[in-house]
Design a protein that fits this description.
alpha+beta, six-stranded mixed sheet, five-stranded mixed sheet, 10 helices, 49% helix, elongated
Amino acid sequence: MQIKQTLESITVITDDSELFLSLGAKMRENFTNSIGSRSKVISFYDESEFVARKYFLKLLGMIYAEKTGSEIAFLPNRSKSIKLVYQKPNSLQIQLNIGVKFERGNVIFDVKNSEELFNRYLVKSLSGVRYEYFERSALLSFAFERADQIELLENILNFRDHLTYSVNFTFNAEDFAAFRRRLEIVGSPSYHRRFSMLASLLEEHFETLGCSSEDDFETVRSSYLQLTKMYHPDLHGEKQGYTDKFQKISVAYEALKPFFKEQDNYILQAANF
């Protein structure tokens, strides 16, 4: 890690792709005037972000001290831009081919040809995004809930060098665009107004299935299937309460299916508008 200072800028150079992604995400999150590419992020000075810049430089100094064992004093110039540069390491990299698919709000990485270290790296890089690992099929699935989380994903997909790996992500660009558009629609005020009111009317059915009105259809369906197995009359004969509970579960599920169908229709119409 190197830090170079001039009167106009502070330049941070690193060959650690994990550090580059982490610092780049913080710069984009905290500094409005930021631009970037796969190997460079630049944040321009904004007076209103002086406090955020102060804490970022403090963090930068701590990381530098940890990496190099030396301290650094940043020259006093409030108007400096901050540049973050990724410098590709010279060491031999391991080649990985990772397939990526987009299904509703989920991004699914096919990691059967990956390594455990890279899988952990993915999880850390997408910090804050719920994930689930399916060991049998070697799939790592992330559930995206907000459009602003897309930038984290783009930072990974558009960047080939990660840790000691050279990664080729294969995915359909049109599917990615549709996935992005879906998140934007779901996060819109009009979508929220429309379906939060409907969800409140169906709250009892969500509770019957042990779910929240914020849960998606896959979660609701999974809970429904588990509960029907648990309370199915064939397993309990004429035991009191089980038949009634089974019927209540079935009614709740059937009542919620049109709600999710309406969501899909709304998203489809908005996407084609």
